[in-house]
Amino acid sequence: MIRLGLINDTQNLLTPTAIHNHPSHTSHDLDQPPIIPNLLNRTIFSGENETMCSALTSFDAGPPIRKIIQTHVQPVVIIFTLFTNCLTTVVLTRSAMRNPTNLILLAIAVADLLTVLLPLPIYMAFSTSNLFSRQLTISKGYLVSYLTHILPTTFHTIAIWLTVLLALQRFIYVQYPMKASVSMLCKEKPVCWAITFTCTVAASLQLPIVAVTRFHYGLPYCSVNGRRVQHFPVIFINNASFRLFEPILFKCTPMPAVLFFGLLLFRITVVNLLPSVSLIILTGQLIVALHRFEKNRRKLLQRSANKIVLLKSSLLGEPPTATQNVIPAAEKKIERASRSAEKDSTSRMMLVILIIFLIVEIPTTACLCCYAFATLFTLSFKWLHEIMEICNFLVVLSYPANFFVYFAMSRPFRSTFKGSFPRLWSILVVMKNRCHTSTNTENMAQGV
Predict the structure, then answer these.
(1) Which of 4, 14, 132, 366 is paired with 167 by a 20 to 30 Å CA distance?
(2) Helix (H), strand (E) at residue 413
């Protein structure tokens, strides 16, 4: 992020769009006398320090890790994510899977799906053609901005807030099981309204950026101070010589740096910092509650099992009716404990999902905070942009991980998946059997 003004002795004049509507006006045409005075007189934002601008360049001009991730690695991960999230969406829409928890999981899966689907055409175009690498236009700038930043950020914000809602709902189920049936967050209709409200607020949060963001062409220039310059046009103004470069496209936000920092910090706090802190607290509470309930369930199972053994052993020495009335009660306790174990299995699955979310979101939040302060103090850290690219890639990588968590830890999900995709299920079974066969063969060979 740069300001208009001194940038390593290079400055930029933001020029009107009309000047660039003629393709014949290249960098070597800029030294023609009729164009330069007109250009300098019609510049916009020239010399203003209240306009935050960043050059919209191709991936070739960005950090090397950006080109590697977004043009080679990330498209493959995104395509795989589209496949897994489509499977997750189909399974969660089945009537057998319809409950308040799965409604939130379905909304998260759809939000993640749209987060990776929207920028995919841009990434594919960057890696397969020069459509967005050369001759950047204002319309291309808006297209790249909406498909790679504004809309994906909106859907990622929805996924973050819904994850907090999921953690809060699971906390109610675990900590207050008797009140869960009457809680608003544990009913389908209120959950649907909460999802709709979340989507609306997340979209509204992007409106300030959409309203102020503009794209303009910029004419880079610098003072040559009597140095010999070849292959670049040079103009003389007030006995000073300036070298002109080829015009480039800028993404500009006409607002003071302090206001821009405030909006950015507000967004980081609301979208990243507060949800991360809330999830850390709720995750810790879930871990403690699950550990306590697991301990109590083991005691209950052990106590009920011992009671059944004692009652059956004394069956011949006591009246049959009294003993037979007590045994079913003990067996019912064991059955209730088993059902509680299934609920705890769902809670453990939610816990794994929350931990994966925190692993990828905490570094992202830290990087965004550093980026906000770097913007305020006009600092430039190349390593920060590289780390942010890695963090964004880890976020995308976590999306298909949720599918494998559902598949491994949820019996209803597996059974519904089997009924929805029988052929795919048979392929997975064959692959699993082959893996077990090869593992057993290797173990036998090592034993011999």
Answers:
(1) 366
(2) helix 411-420
CA separation (Å) from 327 to 297, 300, 302, 304? 19, 15, 14, 9
* CA–CA distance, 128 with 75 (Å, rounded to integer): 11
Judge: domain 2-271+380-416, CATH 1.20.1070. Answer: yes
Confirm if 65 and 389 have CB atoms less than 8 A apart: yes
* pTM reported for the whole predicted model: 0.78
Q: 377 or 425: which carries more pLDDT confidence?
A: 425
Q: Provide the residue ranges of all domains of the chain, joining segments of one domain with +.
A: 2-271+380-416
* CA distances for 1 relative to 52, 152, 255, 324, 430, angstroms: 7, 20, 13, 78, 52
Closest CA to 304 of 343, 262, 336: 336
Cβ 3 vs Cβ 51: under 8 Å: yes
Rounded-to-integer distance, Cα 286 and Cα 280, Å = 10
Q: What is the pLDDT of residues 206-245, one digit of tens each?
A: 988 888 888 877 777 776 665 555 555 666 566 666 677 7
The helix/strand/coil state of 218 is: strand
25 band by pLDDT with thresholds 50, 70 and 90: very low
Whether the CB-CB separation of 365 and 268 falls below 8 Å is answered with yes
Cα–Cα distance, 355 to 333 (Å, whole number):
32
51 in helix, strand or coil? strand
CA atoms of 19 and 34, how far apart (whole Å): 12
Q: How far is the C-alpha of 55 from the C-alpha of 252, rounded, in Å?
A: 9
Across 86-104, average pLDDT: 92
pLDDT of residue 446: 60
User: Whole-angstrom Cα distance, residue 222 to residue 228?
Assistant: 13
